[in-house]
């Protein structure tokens, strides 16, 4: 009789609405939970809840196992029939700890972390709302697991497991962001992303080349932006938020607005953000070596050194930025889902603070050293199709076009010639990904990829006294960089608590470059590279019990030479100039890691991962000869000639560890620490510490949550890096480091004490903010050219609708 009643209930639901809607809320607060994932591993079905906690689960009809997951809540597994008997309403219970969540960065498909041997962390929109990061680089840093270097306020170059810059891969909505001019020096491209428009951020640690190809050596940073939400009823779904924020350390003035308009088959998301930052003020307690109490100003055709009234201001570091995003979604039926996204980001020109600290003969070396506006635009069409045929269960086609513009502007002190170098990159990509489950144990992920980068580089020399301009030396040759690849990964569930994964990828990279020899006497006018690369991975995840998990992974990764490696001309440091080298081949990384996570009585969680990576044929900067000469004149200075070469072997090993403790009355404590050590081979056979192996760093947090209030007191810290521990190439950069008792540069240890809070005043309004660097420390993260903010008061008001 009970079964008959349930079947009658199901028929009633199906017949009375467009689809079957489930509503999911928080058990304690009865508030709707957004972005809850419902999935079935066997059929690869999934759905996510909208801002009202609702999702259409018609596709799950008759399934015996529907897994319901959300970060911070206990996982629920129920049958469709059971959900129907409960009226398709679920109350999720908060969880102190989670060993199981839904991730996408491991395969570009949604899958349980139970089945992914790589270490992956997620940074949710809720965490972003509490932390109030100013940029996407600060968002990554807030995790406590990614070290971020800054050369200026308008920047942020992540370091992961001893690798950085073009040995890390950025993915936006599944599209590769890396271009062929991503350099080995510090990169600022991550600031193009809008933290307010990011739905979820994941960081995959270790090699990711099987899925993502070249550059994914140290890790992958995957950003999922806001997804248009469809209405599940006849009434349009209209949701959104507006935010205003102010920070005192740089007089930040930020505004953001987004709105979602959803119908049954069509949905639209519009987002716009604007930031304005003044010069950044550093702390009052710390090394005096970080103080540069002057700046250069042009007065009456002369460069004049101006003494600052406030010596703690870092001038020039001010900049502004605007981001817009428009997404359109069309879902004609359960099988097809079309999503188009348009992204645009542009910064103002801004000073590169570290270069503006350089001196020559007791005077500033530069009167100007600025980045021009940094522009990023992306058009992305994502087509998903569900078929459940003999070849695939789901198919995803991503077509993307990106446009990058960046420039560098410099002028020597009391010289009238301004040098401007500009780059434009058109990046085109096609990704065709499939997923197929066979029987009940195997799931195959496979696909194809094609990438084309078209690089246009030009130089201009302008006499600022006359305004006359002429063609100048370009930074790069005119180039085309192409990548073609095919990959396959098999996820094999040996038993319910043990999953094996194995994958392979073949990549072929082509590069064609044409050099202009009008300014530099290169012994060549063109270069062509054609390199193949085969990478693989093998890993496993074992869960002896629900309370703990063991994972291990062996993998290889590669980075093919790009245009920056082959063809760049620039001054890497005073007295050195890097010139092109057309004779390069890929570098390969081989990695092993082991992770263990254990929950003790829902009170304590411990998570430890150890890793070791070896980099062969590493592309590094080394002394070189151009036309038989080891030195040439560059910008009026005799400079040592260097070039990127396959000239080294590098090794990195380290440990990532985390502890979380549930304390009484809504309190909690957690600590994340990171230790890494790297070394690379030098020309003479000696070794030097790796440049991107950061010192010991971490964050410890004391949290409190009660109903509408969330608070956090945290300490961020970094260990000391002595002169002897600095990489050889860093020891000459005295302008960015503190000096020890012997006058040698080093990176001191530092800490900041920070307080953050978020209070939900009503269903509509939130107020958040806090005080960063409470003790007003003057500190500078390792390898950075600008100090962090001094004591900083933050206040933000958010309206939800």
From TrEMBL:
CDD domains in the cross-refs: ligand_gated_channel (cd01347)
Keywords from the UniProt entry: Cell outer membrane, Membrane, Receptor, Signal, TonB box, Transmembrane, Transmembrane beta strand, Transport
Compartments (UniProt record): Cell outer membrane
Protein's membrane topology: Multi-pass membrane protein
Primary location: membrane
GO molecular function: siderophore uptake transmembrane transporter activity
GO biological-process terms attached to the record: siderophore transmembrane transport
Residue ranges of every copy of the TonB-dependent receptor-like beta-barrel domain listed in the record: 334-774
Cited Gene3D superfamilies: TonB-dependent receptor, beta-barrel domain, TonB-dependent receptor, plug domain
Record-level GO cellular component terms: cell outer membrane
Signal peptide (UniProt feature, chain positions): 1-19
Ranges annotated as spanning the membrane: none
InterPro entries: Beta-barrel_TonB, Beta-barrel_TonB_sf, Plug_dom, Plug_dom_sf, TonB-dep_rcpt-like, TonB_rcpt_CS
Domain of life from the UniProt record: Bacteria
Domain TonB-dependent receptor plug: residue ranges: 114-220
Family assignment from sequence similarity: Belongs to the TonB-dependent receptor family.
Protein's UniProt name: TonB-dependent receptor
Species of origin: Aequorivita antarctica
